[in-house]
Amino acid sequence: MKVVTVGLGYIGLPTSLMFAKHGAEVVGVDVSERVVGFLNAGQVPIEEPGLPEYLTEALARKKFRASLKPERGDVFIIAVPTPNALDEFGSCDLTYVKQATEAILPCLETGNTVIIESTISPRTTEDIIQPLIEKEGFRVGEDIYLVHCPERVLPGQILHELVHNNRIIGGVTEKCTEKGKEIYGLFVKGELLGAAASTAELSKLMENTYRDVNIALANELVQISSKLGIDALSVIEMANQHPRVNLHQPGPGVGGHCLAVDPYFIVAEAPEEAKLIYQARQINSHMPHFIVQKVLDIMEANQGETITILGLAYKGNVDDTRESPALQIVNQLKKATYYNIRTFDPYVANSDAYSLETALSNSDLAIVLTDHDIFKEIPESIINTMKTPILFDTKNCVLGCDAFHEHYTLGNISNIRRISKRYI
């Protein structure tokens, strides 16, 4: 089986190498000459455990090569980005998906399977992709098998979850679904769940929307508790002792390409009906502003000068900064204050400091915005280099905080004295 994957990012590359590891011949296509050159030279341009070893093996066995253009094959997988469009509700921008589909059309032959892995708005497969293919004279379900198979993996564990997670196989017809099951059955050990393409599309969006809405509930609780002088984290801990309650953990905002993006695709398709989903997005989008206001209060109360941001990625132990609330917080602080803003993230190349010690030296406030393992136990010797050892741990991940003179979380932020009158 020859697989042609269009898009070699956080999903397309691991998927390509997984197929290659299980015997498929894979051609990975990307518009970036840099990415193609890196991969063919054996270098992985993204941070994900296990990928370098998979790439080395695939190249050695001649099961994978990267290219700037698609070519004929048996299976075509489209795994390109789908950002929010610049419209009222942030609808799904299908530009890259359409371009990728049009790029493979000259390569299609009867019997091929086209799989859309990109996250897309409901009915895209049938209303947008199917007509493009059938315009070329093919009959979807007879000549070409068209499937939407959304990814559902966690960065940092992608290779494991590609194999072990259940997978939704959303075919335009039953024949398409069966063909999709046959293809992913090459390596997936989880259950292959057959569905209509539109069901698969909306299911993927709701998986991420469920989490976004629940995080919004926790973040709203933080704001309520801050006003009432109650520890929000203790409230969550107690509430979750109920056998049918599972409140999510709050944070400085929601990042990544999924949770911060996908709910808008639903809102854009049904704005009058998706009121709760839209409100949840507004709450989570407001959290960086809420955090910045608390930072201003801490700094003005202690007359500090230097703020150290610990973590720029949207989640722990990865280099992914897409939609990261940490970057929003940094930008807001730099734009609206005169403080010296210093950043450190061992996974992100463009942070200011090159070590935790240099990041915290002579600083007045350390703000943890990403739960990297390196931040979970900060040595006392490094804490002692701070001018004013104050910690604001928005991820509630730092252990052993006795060396800090003040230690704030999203639970006890009501203890922060409200001084700042500035709103940004």
How would you characterize the overall build of this protein?
The protein is α/β, with parallel strands linked by helices. The chain has helices spanning 12-21, 33-40, 51-60, 95-104, 124-134, 158-164, 174-184, 197-228, 232-239, 262-269, 275-302, 325-336, 356-360, 380-383; strands at 2-6, 25-29, 64-67, 75-78, 113-116, 145-148, 167-171, 192-196, 306-310, 340-344, 365-368, 390-393, 406-409. Helices cover 39% and strands 14% of the residues. Strand 4, helix 4 (95-104) and strand 5 (113-116) form a beta-alpha-beta unit. Helix 8 crosses helix 10 (262-269), helix 8 (197-228) runs parallel beside helix 11 and helix 10 crosses helix 11. The termini are far apart. The model is unreliable at 420-424 (pLDDT under 50).
Mean pLDDT: 95
- Compressed to H and E, one letter per element, the order equals EHEHHEEHEHEHEHEHHHHEHEHEHEE
Can you list the strand order of the major beta sheet? 3-2-1-4-5-6-7-8
* Superfamily (CATH H level) name of the largest domain: NAD(P)-binding Rossmann-like Domain
Query: For the record, what CATH class of the largest domain applies?
Result: Alpha Beta
List keywords for this structure.
424 residues, alpha/beta, Rossmann fold, 2 domains, 13 strands, disordered C terminus, NAD binding, oxidoreductase, UDP_ManNAc/GlcNAc_DH
Question: Topology, please?
Answer:
Blueprint: E1 2-6, H1 12-21, E2 25-29, H2 33-40, H3 51-60, E3 64-67, E4 75-78, H4 95-104, E5 113-116, H5 124-134, E6 145-148, H6 158-164, E7 167-171, H7 174-184, E8 192-196, H8 197-228, H9 232-239, H10 262-269, H11 275-302, E9 306-310, H12 325-336, E10 340-344, H13 356-360, E11 365-368, H14 380-383, E12 390-393, E13 406-409
Helix pairs in contact: 1-3, 8-10, 8-11, 10-11, 11-12
